[in-house]
Amino acid sequence: MLKKEDLIKIGHFAKPHGIKGEISLLTDYEIADISADDPYLVCDMEGIPVPFFIESCRQKNNTAVLVELAGIDSKDKAKLFTGKPAYVPSEMLPSNGEAVPEWKDLTGYTVTDSNTGKAGTVSDIDSRTANVLLAVNYKGKETLIPAALITALDRERKTIAVSLPEGFWEI
């Protein structure tokens, strides 16, 4: 039996995607690391943690995965998950003692743009929506950069490489 204390929240379900029951899962982590190799996700259904087996999934962006769950084969069934938290059993997470990285961990990283060079430092992260934004202090002004534009991340050096369109910093 699944116990709530043995579960780790990894994100929440957003709206259905399409009409065949696929659901958008927004993760709380910097890279959505859910795959069809994972056996199941857990959702709280009327106060009871219920496992839903993953039939397939595909990456939408850095923080969103489109998931097909066994038995959820219509848009109406998928709507029942909208806004609900998604969990995995703690034993499904890395056992090497390493914490699962979260977006907030990128605060303080130096951002380098492929066009302009060193841009600034990440001062805040807005991960409330599927479009995660990095707040970067650029020339004394806070500028928001979509996380989808990250091209490389170096944890040891605490650097983030981005490739921004020409003229982005002048907006």
What does this structure look like?
- The chain has 171 residues and is an all-beta fold.
- Helices cover 3% and strands 49% of the residues.
- The chain has one helix spanning 75-79, and strands spanning 7-17, 22-27, 40-45, 48-61, 64-69, 85-89, 110-113, 117-126, 133-138, 141-146, 150-154, 159-162.
- The protein has a six-stranded antiparallel barrel.
- A hairpin with a 4-residue loop joins strand 11 (150-154) and strand 12 (159-162).
- The longest helix is centred in the middle third of the chain and has 5 residues, at 75-79.
- The radius of gyration is 18 Å and the shape is elongated.
- The mean pLDDT is 80.
Helix content: under 10%
**What is the average per-residue confidence, as pLDDT, rounded to a whole number?**
80
Q: What general outline do the C-alpha atoms trace?
A: elongated
The tally of strands reads 12
Radius of gyration: 18 Å
Structural class: mainly beta
Distance from first to last alpha carbon: 54 Å
Helical stretch tally: 1
Largest sheet: 6 strands, antiparallel, barrel
Strand order of the largest sheet: 1-2-5-4-3-6
Strand content: over 45%
Record the SSE blueprint.
Layout lengths: L6 E11 L4 E6 L12 E6 L2 E14 L2 E6 L5 H5 L5 E5 L20 E4 L3 E10 L6 E6 L2 E6 L3 E5 L4 E4 L9
Parallel strand pairs: 7-12
Antiparallel strand pairs: 1-2, 1-6, 2-5, 3-4, 3-6, 4-5, 7-8, 8-9, 9-10, 11-12
